[in-house]
Q: What sequence folds into this?
């Protein structure tokens, strides 16, 4: 890879559809001969971190900023060899081998893009949005069935920690976003077009 990859951040509140959007975007970019790697901010939660007294895990302080910045920089430069993973159940951190380069790095997550803005150059900031009722249905389905949490605990966290955390750390990103996405199909098309233009402008060569 002659030039660093482009850094595209996909931000937004909990259960807005960031992960789905990122994976669909990766697929569409591949069809356009643009290679992309999706990296999740959730994998950079601090191991066995003690939840914040106000925001719990819904705060940028829960993310290992230095590790995230270091790995994203390494990925942009094509030299990342170990990919970090975080287990939401055990709160353990592990690593897996990673080999490969890409044209685009898609960093997705509620917390993470905020930590990069003053350290790395973001080529594009995409904000994925959805109504609170839709997000609550998705969050309950995910946390109860995939993370073995009770409905009551999810609702309590939502009111006491998630919503205050979003107001402080996530909602401000909407004002800085290059694209605000509410309809996924239309948003994917806009994102692919914007990324294609960035690649052409920067002189990056797609394979």
A:
């Amino acid at each position: 890879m002659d030039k660093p990859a482009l850094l595209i951040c996909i931000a937004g509140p909990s259960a807005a559809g960031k992960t789905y959007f990122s994976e669909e975007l990766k697929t569409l970019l591949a069809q356009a001969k643009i290679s992309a790697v999706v990296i999740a901010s959730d994998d950079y939660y601090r191991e066995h971190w003690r939840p914040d007294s106000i925001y719990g895990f819904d705060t940028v302080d829960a993310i290992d900023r230095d590790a995230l910045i270091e790995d994203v920089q390494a990925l942009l430069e094509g030299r990342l060899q170990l990919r970090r993973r975080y287990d939401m159940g055990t709160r353990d951190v592990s690593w897996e081998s990673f080999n490969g380069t890409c044209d685009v790095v898609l960093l997705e997550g509620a917390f993470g893009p905020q930590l990069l803005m003053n350290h790395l150059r973001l080529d594009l900031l995409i904000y994925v949005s959805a109504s609170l009722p839709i997000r609550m249905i998705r969050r309950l389905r995910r946390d109860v069935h995939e993370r073995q949490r009770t409905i009551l605990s999810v609702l309590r966290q939502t009111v006491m920690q998630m919503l205050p955390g979003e107001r402080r750390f996530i909602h401000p990103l909407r004002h800085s976003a290059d694209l605000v996405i509410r309809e996924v199909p239309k948003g994917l098309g806009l994102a692919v077009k914007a990324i294609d233009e960035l690649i052409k402008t920067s002189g990056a060569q797609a394979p």
